[in-house]
Amino acid sequence: xxxxxDRLYSDFHLWVSLDGHRATIGLTEYALEELGEIDYIQLPxxxxxxxxxxxxxxxxxxxxxxxxxxxxxxxxxxxxxAVQESxxxxxxxxxxxxxxxxxxxxxxxxxxxxxxxxxxxxAVERGSD
Length: 129
Description:
CATH 2.40.50.100; six-stranded antiparallel sheet; 34% strand
Protein backbone atom coordinates (compact mmCIF):
# COMPACT_ATOMS: atom_id res chain seq x y z
CA UNK A 1 0.00 0.00 0.00
CA UNK A 2 1.22 3.45 -0.94
CA UNK A 3 1.54 5.95 1.95
CA UNK A 4 3.50 8.97 0.70
CA UNK A 5 5.95 10.40 3.24
CA ASP A 6 5.29 14.00 2.16
CA ARG A 7 1.78 14.08 3.63
CA LEU A 8 0.03 13.96 6.96
CA TYR A 9 -2.88 11.64 7.75
CA SER A 10 -6.04 11.58 9.82
CA ASP A 11 -7.60 8.74 11.80
CA PHE A 12 -10.43 8.90 9.25
CA HIS A 13 -8.09 7.86 6.40
CA LEU A 14 -7.68 11.22 4.73
CA TRP A 15 -4.34 12.64 3.65
CA VAL A 16 -3.31 16.28 3.95
CA SER A 17 -0.68 18.04 1.86
CA LEU A 18 0.23 21.46 3.26
CA ASP A 19 1.43 24.54 1.43
CA GLY A 20 1.55 27.24 4.07
CA HIS A 21 -2.02 27.60 5.34
CA ARG A 22 -3.49 25.82 2.31
CA ALA A 23 -4.30 22.15 2.82
CA THR A 24 -5.07 19.79 -0.05
CA ILE A 25 -7.13 16.89 1.30
CA GLY A 26 -7.86 13.50 -0.22
CA LEU A 27 -8.75 9.90 0.57
CA THR A 28 -5.92 7.47 1.28
CA GLU A 29 -5.32 4.41 -0.85
CA TYR A 30 -6.27 2.30 2.18
CA ALA A 31 -9.65 4.06 2.48
CA LEU A 32 -10.34 3.59 -1.22
CA GLU A 33 -9.52 -0.12 -1.01
CA GLU A 34 -11.85 -0.50 1.96
CA LEU A 35 -14.68 1.45 0.31
CA GLY A 36 -14.56 -0.36 -3.02
CA GLU A 37 -15.98 1.12 -6.21
CA ILE A 38 -17.29 4.63 -5.60
CA ASP A 39 -20.57 5.49 -7.32
CA TYR A 40 -21.05 9.04 -6.07
CA ILE A 41 -19.15 11.68 -4.15
CA GLN A 42 -20.47 14.91 -2.64
CA LEU A 43 -18.05 17.71 -1.75
CA PRO A 44 -18.56 21.20 -0.29
CA UNK A 45 -18.53 24.28 -2.49
CA UNK A 46 -15.79 26.93 -2.33
CA UNK A 47 -16.48 29.37 0.48
CA UNK A 48 -18.08 26.77 2.75
CA UNK A 49 -16.55 26.09 6.15
CA UNK A 50 -15.32 22.69 7.31
CA UNK A 51 -14.73 21.78 10.95
CA UNK A 52 -12.21 19.25 12.25
CA UNK A 53 -13.80 15.87 13.01
CA UNK A 54 -17.09 16.92 11.35
CA UNK A 55 -18.56 15.60 8.09
CA UNK A 56 -17.78 17.75 5.06
CA UNK A 57 -19.02 15.47 2.31
CA UNK A 58 -19.93 11.89 1.55
CA UNK A 59 -18.96 8.91 -0.54
CA UNK A 60 -21.52 6.41 -1.80
CA UNK A 61 -20.65 2.87 -2.85
CA UNK A 62 -22.80 -0.16 -3.54
CA UNK A 63 -22.04 -1.21 0.07
CA UNK A 64 -22.62 1.98 2.05
CA UNK A 65 -22.80 5.74 2.30
CA UNK A 66 -19.81 7.05 4.26
CA UNK A 67 -19.18 10.55 5.63
CA UNK A 68 -15.93 12.31 4.78
CA UNK A 69 -14.63 13.64 8.10
CA UNK A 70 -12.52 16.81 8.02
CA UNK A 71 -8.94 16.43 9.28
CA UNK A 72 -8.66 20.20 9.82
CA UNK A 73 -10.91 23.24 10.22
CA UNK A 74 -10.99 25.87 7.53
CA UNK A 75 -12.67 27.38 4.50
CA UNK A 76 -12.95 25.50 1.23
CA UNK A 77 -10.97 27.24 -1.52
CA UNK A 78 -11.49 24.56 -4.20
CA UNK A 79 -13.47 21.37 -4.72
CA UNK A 80 -12.33 18.78 -7.23
CA UNK A 81 -15.14 18.81 -9.79
CA ALA A 82 -13.44 16.11 -11.85
CA VAL A 83 -13.82 13.47 -9.11
CA GLN A 84 -17.42 14.49 -8.51
CA GLU A 85 -18.19 14.03 -12.20
CA SER A 86 -16.17 10.80 -12.45
CA UNK A 87 -15.61 9.14 -9.03
CA UNK A 88 -13.38 6.35 -10.47
CA UNK A 89 -10.66 9.03 -10.85
CA UNK A 90 -10.13 8.69 -7.09
CA UNK A 91 -8.86 5.14 -7.54
CA UNK A 92 -6.63 5.99 -10.49
CA UNK A 93 -4.45 8.53 -8.70
CA UNK A 94 -5.57 9.14 -5.09
CA UNK A 95 -2.51 11.19 -4.10
CA UNK A 96 -2.39 13.57 -7.06
CA UNK A 97 -5.38 14.13 -9.37
CA UNK A 98 -7.72 12.35 -6.93
CA UNK A 99 -7.68 15.11 -4.30
CA UNK A 100 -11.03 16.16 -2.82
CA UNK A 101 -10.75 19.75 -1.58
CA UNK A 102 -8.27 22.52 -0.93
CA UNK A 103 -9.00 24.46 2.25
CA UNK A 104 -7.46 27.45 3.98
CA UNK A 105 -6.59 26.20 7.48
CA UNK A 106 -8.22 28.30 10.20
CA UNK A 107 -6.49 26.71 13.23
CA UNK A 108 -2.87 25.73 12.49
CA UNK A 109 -2.63 24.02 15.92
CA UNK A 110 -4.77 21.19 14.51
CA UNK A 111 -1.95 20.23 12.14
CA UNK A 112 0.05 18.82 15.06
CA UNK A 113 -2.75 16.29 15.70
CA UNK A 114 -2.33 14.66 12.28
CA UNK A 115 -0.23 11.53 11.82
CA UNK A 116 3.04 11.28 9.93
CA UNK A 117 3.25 8.55 7.30
CA UNK A 118 4.94 5.97 9.55
CA UNK A 119 2.43 6.45 12.38
CA UNK A 120 -0.46 6.20 9.90
CA UNK A 121 0.99 3.00 8.42
CA UNK A 122 1.22 1.51 11.92
CA ALA A 123 -2.37 2.53 12.69
CA VAL A 124 -3.61 0.91 9.48
CA GLU A 125 -1.62 -2.25 10.28
CA ARG A 126 -3.09 -2.42 13.79
CA GLY A 127 -6.58 -1.87 12.40
CA SER A 128 -6.29 -4.62 9.82
CA ASP A 129 -5.10 -7.34 12.25
